[in-house]
Amino acid sequence: MAGPTSYPFLKGHGTENDFVVLLDPDGTVHGDLAPERVRALCDRRAGIGADGVLRVVRTIAYAPEQAGEAEWFMDYRNADGSVSEMCGNGVRVFARFLLEAGLATSPVPIATRAGLKTVTVDGTGPMAVFTADMGQPKVLGASQVTIEHHFWQATHVDMGNPHAVAFVDDLDPHGPVGPLVDPPVHDEDEYPDGVNVEFVVTRGERHVAMRVHERGSGETRSCGTGACAAMVAAAEAAADTPAITGQDVTYRVDVPGGVLAVTWTTDDRVLLTGPAVLVAEGETQL
Ligand SMILES: N[C@@H](CCC[C@H](N)C(=O)O)C(=O)O
């Protein structure tokens, strides 16, 4: 009698935003990657445990309309099984996987639901640093987020996926932001597909820190697109954008899981720099 089917996987993270990586070149191994399978893989007690899944699939097999742009497509899923357009920490881990598997060379073009992203690597081994060109940020206006009886103004920044960036006085989980167990209440008209919410404090000149509640994953240790959104909102609030200064502007963004650097360039692109680490590989029957 045949035993249960096993599938190879890897586990990786970027500033402790962690992912299960599944290689599925032709899109035939994992089919439609049903939400319940993603939830099982991401379960931190009964599964491998992760904030999301990165399925590595050939663009021609999954998104043929983008096949001219990149050989590989990042099929990203949140821990609850939902689909997102983009993942900034994930795209660096995805690039590291392709490079280590000998499936690409740097710079690595990667097709995503938010269009083409290109990842460049500097250095080798554990000290390697990855920079993802995240494209043009869109600052779409103001909204509000609410937790219990606290509310904050928030800036809607689109990084391919939706973000609400709220500046707060204190990130302490015992303070008004709290433990971020439930999604902050947000304006459903402004964010019809849900939203990632970043709570941001200023630490110094061109230096911010944030916590994030991610759509579909809850509070995570880091969010790359969220760090980009926080930087853009902070630079706008400080009148410190490349459009004003005439130069590229770089901010340090501290997250609970590490440090990211975000550069907003004079040609209106956002570059996200940080680590990408592969920590394990194995076989799963999930
Ligand atoms: N952690 C990611 C973002 C993942 C997707 C997000 N939860 C969404 O639903 O848009 C990042 O590093 O950007």
UniProtKB/TrEMBL annotation:
Function: Catalyzes the stereoinversion of LL-2,6-diaminopimelate (L,L-DAP) to meso-diaminopimelate (meso-DAP), a precursor of L-lysine and an essential component of the bacterial peptidoglycan.
Pathway annotation: Amino-acid biosynthesis; L-lysine biosynthesis via DAP pathway; DL-2,6-diaminopimelate from LL-2,6-diaminopimelate: step 1/1
Similarity section: Belongs to the diaminopimelate epimerase family.
Enzyme Commission no: 5.1.1.7
GO molecular function, one term: diaminopimelate epimerase activity
The name this protein goes by in its record: Diaminopimelate epimerase
Active site, UniProt feature: 87, 87 (proton donor), 223 (proton acceptor)
PANTHER family: DIAMINOPIMELATE EPIMERASE, DIAMINOPIMELATE EPIMERASE, CHLOROPLASTIC
Localisation: Cytoplasm
UniProt KW keywords: Amino-acid biosynthesis, Cytoplasm, Isomerase, Lysine biosynthesis
PROSITE patterns reported for this sequence: DAP_EPIMERASE
Lineage: Bacteria, Bacillati, Actinomycetota, Actinomycetes, Propionibacteriales
Annotated site (Could be important to modulate the pK values of the two catalytic cysteine residues): 163, 214
Quaternary context: Homodimer.
Gene3D superfamilies given in the database record: Diaminopimelate Epimerase, Chain A, domain 1 (3.10.310.10)
InterPro entries: DAP_epimerase_AS (IPR018510), DAP_epimerase_DapF (IPR001653)
Catalytic activity: (2S,6S)-2,6-diaminopimelate = meso-2,6-diaminopimelate
Positions of substrate binding: 17, 78, 88-89, 161, 196, 214-215, 224-225
Pfam families (alphabetical): DAP_epimerase
Organism: Nocardioides eburneus
